Amino acid sequence: MNKEVLSLAIALAIPITTHADIKLYGQIGAEAASVEYAGGDEDLVRGKMGSSLGFTETDDDMDRQILTEDRYGNILNDGPNLIGLDFELDKKLPGGLIPHARYRTTFHTTNNSGLGPGLEAWVGLKNDTFQIKYGKLRGAYRNAKGLIDPWIYTSMQARGSGGGMSGGRYNEVHWNWNATGDRRSVVKDPITGKVGINPGYGINTSGLVHSSDIPGALEMGVKFGGVNARVQIMGDDNADKRGGNAELKYTNDKLIVWLLGAYLDQGDNQISPGGAAWNNDKFYNWKIGASYKVIPGLKLALQYEDGELGAFDNNPDGGQYIIGSFDYRIQKITLAGWVAGYLSDIEENLRLTDINGEVLDEDALSWSLGAKYHITEYAHIFAGYRQTDSDNDYRDENVFSAGMLYKF
User: Fold this and answer.
1) Helix (H) or strand (E) holding 334
2) CATH label of the domain that carries residue 63
3) Could you tell me if residue 90 is inside a domain?
4) Residue 129 CA from chain centroid, whole number
5) Structural domain harbouring 270
6) N or C: which end of the chain has fewer CB within 10 A?
């Protein structure tokens, strides 16, 4: 970013801490889950593969397990927990502009290991029709996940659990290319014959999918009535990484319609493993969706996404996601669920060959269903079930989950 933008950020940060209204807020939650990966397949184990020594790390087999802390990232007790500070100058500048800023960070409830990765941290200017921000931003592409998924921030969410929307790698299978480099197959442990997988695996997508925020980004947006439009631009020549998000959204009392696009130029920093056959340094994602309040207590939503970045099967050709959801509240009870399909564009030579030599497709169907009991306006307990069924059986999974979430 240029020096003018950085100077603006510094200038705004100095007075806003002493002459601002400050709002403290956040949420804290915890859950436990009963998880079964890949149908309890006896040929699979959770762990990392070494070279000729086989597994360098092993875990229980794929039978059902009770998990409250999952180092692979699928049990999300560090997911919903955050503390945020919003700052806003208590008077307007010429032109009606108001300096404002935000800082957010995460923490864990499983072992209270302290503050986790920082989330948003930015400064900006706004008025009734215009805004500008600079810093680490919540990506518009990521922020829209809450418009479609009623189980966001739990282990029943569509993000990162397969089939629902783009994110990190999901049930990543250890694999190698064959001698001619035209086929990839799973790697078996030389002693046990088992295949190692990581159920959840984070990748740096620079905030341009549903699993991270955008570092060092500039946002400009306008608002006219129910129409919001904004652009987020990330540029770092030293990191050889450029990209951004664009959003167009319409909102009224019953209807929300959104159209978003994301672009990332990775340069020489490849995020897909495997050599030249996987190289793709430019990625494009876009999605369109809508939610509608049928009656005061019932909301239905539908979204289509075409993604090259953060695809379910981790391939640079990406695929298409279609997800529909409902959220129905009756007094203190909310019933909610989603169903999603993933259609892969993976090329024939990139499809995995399993331990029996069979080529695996990657299309998938996922769904989730559960209930919340609202103890107060700010706290609820929840329980539900999520399942993923893929043509690649290594990605299959089912989860029973229960927990509590408190907002303040």
Assistant:
1) strand 333-344
2) 2.40.160
3) no
4) 29
5) 29-76+136-407
6) C
Quick one: residue 71, left, alpha or beta (phi over 0 = left, psi -120 to 50 = alpha)?
Answer: alpha
The span from the CA of 384 to the CA of 151, in Å, is 9
Per-residue pLDDT tens over the stretch 95-137: 789 999 999 988 877 777 667 667 899 999 999 899 999 999 9
| Distance (Å, whole) CA 137 – CA 304 | 24
What is the tally of structural domains in the chain?
1
Strand partners, 351: none
Distances (CA, A) of 273 to 51, 87, 174, 280, 350: 16, 42, 11, 10, 11
Three-class SS state of 137: strand
Question: Of the candidates 315, 319, 286, 317, which has an alpha carbon nearest to the alpha carbon of residue 303?
Answer: 286
Alpha carbon distances (Å) from 346 to 259, 269, 311, 315, 351: 25, 21, 10, 6, 7
3-state SS assignment for residue 383? strand
CB 272 within 8 A of CB 280: yes
Question: Would 199 be classed as within a structural domain?
Answer: yes
Residue 325 has φ and ψ, to the nearest 5°, of: -145, 160
Inter-residue contact 310 to 337 (CB < 8 Å): no
DSSP secondary structure code for residue 15 in this structure: H
- The 10 Å Cβ neighbour count of residue 163 is 28
Q: Could you give the angle at the alpha carbon of 194 between the alpha carbons of 192 and 200, nearest 5°?
A: 140
Is position 111 within any domain?
no
Distance spanning both ends of the chain, measured CA to CA: 35
Question: pLDDT digits over 331-381, tens only?
Answer: 999 999 999 999 999 888 788 888 888 888 999 999 999 999 999 999 999
* 8 found inside a domain: no
